[in-house]
Fold:
Amino acid sequence: MTQLLAGTSGFSYKEWLGKFYPEKHPADGMLRYYAGHFATVEINNTFYRMPAETMLARWAEEVPENFALTLKAPRRITHGLRLKECETHVAEFARRAQALGGKLGPFLFQLPPYLKKDLPRLRDFLALLPAGRPAAFEFRNESWQDGEV
Structure:
């Protein structure tokens, strides 16, 4: 049976105080509270910088066993290098992500809108990913939106 997990993009928003989180909920307790209501979350700050293993390990401790943390890949990989010549960056990202243990969900690769469909590039990139690690792609250029992809 297919498992469907519901969650949001991010969890640490002060605008959610009094709406989702209790009015005076501390920022350092947001993930634990969030994980009591959802089964997954997309971590966005990893897009802006390579994640620190200590931070990831702390997050893994704050969520239940069946919770999945989806990490958005660093923009250096997707926007800077555009999925090319990024072996060392992908390997380092995957290595650090292991700090989440069994709570690591899929990697998310958000491609820039200026990156047009390039199947050979995508195939080469997919070969860099750890075997068996689920990955999701957000194709932001409409050229990717066809049956071939």
Observations:
- The chain has one domain: 7-144.
- Helices lie at 30-35, 53-62, 75-80, 87-97, 119-126.
- Strands lie at 7-9, 40-43, 68-72, 104-110, 135-138.
- Residues 11 and 88 are 29 Å apart (CA to CA).
